[in-house]
Amino acid sequence: MDTSSRTDSVPLLTRRFGAPGRIAFREGRGGFPVAVLASRFGVCEVSLYGGQVLSYRPAGHSPVLFLSRAARFEAGRPVRGGIPLCWPWFGAAPETGPSHGFARTSMWTAVATTYSNDSTELTLGLKDSPETRALWPFPFELKLVVTLGDCLRLALTTGNTGDRPMPVTQSFHPYLLVRDIRRTTVGRIEGARCRDFLTGREFVQEGPLAFSGETDLLVHPPANGCVAFDEGLGRTIAITFRGTRTLVLWNPWEEKAKRLEDLGDDEYRRLLCIEPVNTRDTAVEIPPGKTAALSLAIQAGAAER
Ligand code: TA6
Fold first, then answer.
1. 237 close to 299: Cβ distance less than 8 angstroms
2. Where does 182-302 have alpha helices with state H?
3. Cα gap 7→82, rounded to integer Å
4. Which pLDDT tens digit goes with each residue over 80-101?
5. Which of these, 60, 59, 31, 33, lies nearest to 45 by C-alpha position?
6. Angle CA(122)–CA(179)–CA(35) in degrees, nearest 5?
7. What residues in the chain have per-residue pLDDT under 70?
8. Closest residue (by CA) to atom 13 of ligand 1?
9. Cis-peptide into 88, omega within 30 deg
10. pLDDT of 298
11. pLDDT of the residue at 95
12. What is the Cα–Cα distance from 257 to 282, expressed in whole angstroms?
């Protein structure tokens, strides 16, 4: 089901929300408008299709997000890379509908932009429609605020505009760009209870997590954050989050990568997904008229050698 619909033109977006040197709009791949945010700390780009951050490059760093060279920019299809939004369900649809929900294949609208000496900010919105209600029978109002400051922050707020409780599972699904997944570890999850979605095995993480094969891991970290250490690039990427205490770590590895038509066969080596998530076990039930928020911050740093 294609829940995307056309949006404002780039000239209209520029007139209403642009700010020379700080906020611009351009026509992106697939004809989808893209907001370009700049601050003294770096640049990022956000597609109105899917409300999806496509790129983020802090000043003095190489790009922090992976985007597949085979990514498809077509209405109704998710884009493989950047930071897809999984909403209003994470994983398979409760009944019928696309994997990871329809927010990432919907056209969002620009609501507001603002900037200061320290940050540049874009607010996008998505509301229910006949197409979304055919997939998920709840009225809602979504707001995504992307803030480019000394780190990249995303805040997703779900408003229940209906008259009955609304069950939501959700995640940010960031594709971090690494030099080589085989030389990348995730720290600050020592002591975390983990469940391997591939085998069902449960264990407590000891020391930094390394990667040597397909990984689809549910992690309950002791704190609301973790750090990816990229030995190849000599950098760290710190992830902090609120609105959940659960992460999913994912890498498709070689065999699954070959089965993904929108991922180059060898590109699994360049990506690591660290996803703050409300899964079915930690689903959010939002009362009528109330809201629930999920937030993420991504910060690149130099790794101590
Ligand atoms: O990252 C967790 C996960 O649910 C994996 O199981 C895998 O399916 C991944 O998301 C990618 O999903 P997608 O629908 O974007 O191909």
1. yes
2. 253-259
3. 21
4. 999 999 999 999 998 889 999 9
5. 33
6. 15
7. 1-7, 304-305
8. 99
9. yes
10. 98
11. 87
12. 28
Q: How far is the CA of 91 from the centre of ligand 1 (A)?
A: 7
Tokens 């369900």, located at residue: 89
The model's pTM: 0.97
Q: Is the CB of 250 under 6 A from ligand 1?
A: yes
pLDDT at 8: 84
pLDDT at res. 96:
87
Q: What is the pLDDT of residue 190?
A: 97
Report how far ligand 1's centroid is from the alpha carbon of 274 (Å): 11
271 lines ligand 1 (CB under 6 A): no
Measured CA distances, 7 to 13, 49, 200, 231, 233 (Å): 9, 9, 43, 42, 38
List the helix and strand counts (H, then E) for the chain: 3, 23
Which residue's alpha carbon is at the smallest distance from atom 9 of ligand 1?
250
Ligand 1 close to Cβ of residue 82 (< 6 A): no
Query: What would you report as the CA-atom Rg of the chain, rounded to the nearest whole angstrom?
Result: 18
Phi-psi region of 70 (alpha: psi -120 to 50; beta: other; left: phi over 0): alpha
Atom of ligand 1 nearest to the CA of 84: 15
What are the DSSP calls for 174-211, one per residue?
-EEE-S-GGGEEEES-TT-EEEETTT--EEE--SSEE-
* pLDDT for 1: 45
**Measured in angstroms, how far is the CA atom of residue 233 from the centroid of ligand 1?**
25
Q: Report whether residue 81 contacts ligand 1, using a CB cutoff of 6 Å.
A: no
